[in-house]
Amino acid sequence: MLLRFTLPRGTSPAVVFSLALSSTLWSGCSTTDQKTSPVDQVIGSMSDSLPVVQLPDEADPEDENWKGIDLTPKAPVLPLYPAEEAQKFLLPAGYHIEPILTEPQIQQPGAIAFDGNGRMYVLELRTYMLTADSDGELEPDSRISRWEDRDHDGVYETGTAFVDSLIFPRFVLPYGKDCILTMESDADNVYKYTDTDGDGKADKKELFTNKYGRSGNVEHQQAFMYWGMDNWLYSTVNAFRVRETPGGVIREKTGYNRAQWGVAHDDDGKLWFQGGASGLPSYFQFPIHYGNFEVENEFAEGFDVPWGAAVKTADMQGGMDEIRQPDGSLKRVTGSAGNDVYRGDRLPRDLQGQYFYGEPVARIVRQINPVVTEGLTTLHNVYQDEQSEFLRSTDPLFRPVDMATAPDGTLYIVDMYHGIIQEGQWAQKGSYLRTKIEQYQLDKVVGLGRIWRITHEGLERDKTQPRMFEERTAELVNHLTHPNGWWRDKAQQLIVLRQDRSVVPQLETLARQDKNMLARFHALWSLEGLNALDVTLVRDLLQDPNPRLRIQALRASETLYKTGKKELASDYQRMLQDPVTEVVIQAMLTAKVLQLPALDRHIQAAMTANQARGVQVVGKQILNPPVVRGFGVSGGPDLTETQLALVEHGAEIFNELCSQCHGTDGTGTPVGEGQVLAPPLTGSLRVQAHPDYVIKTLLHGLTGPIEGKTYAGGIMVGMPEQSDEWVASVLSFIRVNLTNEASPITPADVARVRKASAAQQGPYQYAALRASVPQALPLQDNWNVTASHTASARIGGTASPRSAFNFEGWTTGETQQKGMWFQIELPRPTTLTEVHFNSPPIRSGWGPEAPPPIQTYPRTYEVQVSMDGKTWSEPVATRQGSEADQTVVFAPVDAKFVRITQTTTVEAEDTAPWSMRQLQLFGLVTSSVALN
């Protein structure tokens, strides 16, 4: 094949070679027109005539956001080949940048992550801002691809679509061999996808955890599920953390991280969260699970001033008031995305421990130096005095959205290479940004994307190919001493996932004796993840000469204290008087999160003994917690006074009785060898499921294995002698608390189940109990969902009836009329028992002066079923809507079709459409419903 380029006169041979390499990459891909590169396709979509733009009618030319705006016709911003873009980067002396994966193999990358064999997973947000109005943003066209460098030349040339047809996926977390965790936008569940046949494509989908998501603008939803050094999984936005245990996925509340796109950790395991609209790091002072602490002057003077290169376009959402003249660059940070604490070994040593993040509006990657003084951290832009940044570009299409320390010891940069980086809600018609988009035809630059490697002269990348999936666990332990933090992190993760306790002696020796301090950290946390942490080892490490190790021992000891090792309280009291300020602060945080007895007195004593600013700031806020407001806070249901009384009574019952077997925190009372006395109740999908499950269990008991796992207690004894109110109280406490956040149970619910299950003799076996309880039927690809009327429930959303099953929602788009219908066709007849859905109100404002919301629940409706979609039954239920949450229960009925029909036309003055989201069907099933 002949490759032809038109190059500027005097182009260097290196650029010519790099262009040929880039073209070889795209020409070998079968998913694109091989006659035209993606860059050429984008250029071909642009208008030859220069657009005429003018000040929108509603714009005030005297307003600072518009004053001085240049509206003269401009040539479009043309995309460059990767090798051409590489020439536009500005880096400090000695640094080099090279493309390692580009379009058309990938499109619009948003994040990357590596598995134990060094294969790179790419989160491809293929629907992001394809038009200025964000049309089709929630179409199922995004993917997670997996790439590897099989010929070891540094370019990732071999890849597959590991999971395809996703709706704007939020993250990708490699989770063992050929397995990842991810979730979609406007969804609530995290799923585990596994490739079981080795073809590079996931063919198995399993629920990992629920109650993880939210709806809203795609910039405001949770992202970046991240494995911390403490073996918990964190994400942006969500004020909780989760982890998988032998008893299921459990959850704990944390502080509010106020982050949007980016989570990383340093060598000591402290998490760093990256903000979004703020353009700044969000929370980084202390580990987030200790709650929030407000610290003044976290950023050095001038930190919010970016020093991007001259890009001329001045296409910043804030308007001309935010533009540095005359170069058109950004003069105050306004957006940020992606972060990494560099922990590799193939860039200069002065980069280790430095914090990097992208500011895609300013087209920069910042290098931040964290300076700790008296236990508190202040962030400094390394290149501020030079009025520069670590990485800048004069190409307006450079959009750095993620970065990562790579297995080869270098730093990778994810470049979405996109015309518009702000979501459509910030680029609406009549806005300053929309005017600039149209002036430069930025909306035409879509479907591209590059991943770059940053190297340094004299430091060759590490060409060792990771092969952790083929290694024995004992070999993984050896990687805990590796100088590259990526190898240490991944080895620890796989050790914990394997749950191979044969390496416990090896890990204990490493934790006690190794000369590599960082290896000792990872050995300690590997033991914690294996549930093999010994209290004697921890107490010894609490007296180690190195204060950093004492801090790690304090953090790890919290797991033991929670499981009953209360003797550690004396160690905490002693360490509150440690001579090192950072150790004292950690002891205070540990005492706070564990609610150490006489906490206030001990904190006050520590503050008296140590006057360091950090000790005083933390101590004061423990003693007098500030009011903290979170972004996207996830909480339990709002309780009425009656429900609250039930829950409070249930707490007493649980602590007096149930905690003996189920543990004080609901995770199960340990009995040794990783076993617990009774099934964990914390974060339990069984507890959160249909209320009948826990009611029947408490009334009649449960024995035998549960989902293949046995428990030391052997049997849950039924308590039919207890009153309906007693049963409702304790079950409401368990469902509302212990991170379950499910609805409470009423005494009437208990009475109904007691009557219906009166024939049950003795305790249930799990299979029989589950078969007797209605199960939520997860939406399947082969369900045919239709409606008489369909419109998108939100700007940029998908006009599809299937959206009724997620957070995005479905709506008629028109005023409710008699005869409107919504129908589901199942692939086979199923015994149905209930329909649940939520119809959120439409608000046009907030506060006492705002007009009342428009209610979108169906005013009156009926539910019918059918076997063939032609002959319909008499209504199995009729309802008159009165609130957003609708629960329709009916006698079990076999059906292949189910239809909800409006039976009233709403009066003309009430323009409420009918809407539904989080729709669920419930039915009786004899085994787990397949997810595929």
Give the arrangement of secondary structure elements.
Blueprint: H1 13-27, H2 38-44, H3 82-86, E1 89-90, E2 95-102, E3 109-114, E4 120-124, E5 142-148, E6 158-166, E7 173-174, E8 179-182, E9 190-194, E10 204-209, E11 226-227, E12 233-234, E13 240-245, E14 248-253, E15 263-265, E16 271-273, E17 323-324, E18 329-330, E19 337-341, E20 355-359, E21 364-373, E22 376-381, E23 391-393, E24 400-405, E25 411-415, H4 432-440, E26 450-456, H5 473-478, H6 485-498, H7 504-513, H8 517-529, H9 535-541, H10 547-562, H11 568-575, H12 581-594, H13 599-609, H14 613-623, H15 641-662, E27 670-672, E28 675-676, H16 685-688, H17 691-700, E29 701-703, E30 715-717, H18 724-736, H19 747-756, E31 764-765, H20 766-772, E32 775-777, E33 784-787, E34 791-792, E35 810-815, E36 821-838, E37 860-866, E38 877-880, E39 885-902, E40 913-924
Parallel strand pairs: 29-31
Antiparallel strand pairs: 1-23, 2-26, 3-4, 4-5, 5-6, 7-8, 8-9, 9-10, 11-12, 13-14, 15-16, 17-18, 19-20, 20-21, 21-22, 21-23, 24-25, 25-26, 27-28, 29-30, 32-40, 33-36, 34-35, 35-40, 36-39, 36-40, 37-38, 37-39
Number of domains: 4
Low-confidence region ranges: 1-34, 629-637, 927-932
Q: Report how far the terminal alpha carbons are from each other.
A: 42 Å
Instruction: Estimate what percentage of residues fall within beta strands.
Output: 15-25%
Class computed from helices, strands and strand pairing: alpha+beta
CATH topology of the largest domain: Neuraminidase
DSSP summary: helix tally:
20
Q: Could you give me the name of the CATH homologous superfamily of the largest domain? A: TolB, C-terminal domain
For the sheet with most strands, the description reads: 9 strands, antiparallel
Overall 3D geometry? globular
Percent of residues in helices? 10-25%
CATH class of the largest domain: Mainly Beta
How many strands appear in the DSSP assignment? Answer: 40
**Radius of gyration (Å):** 29 Å
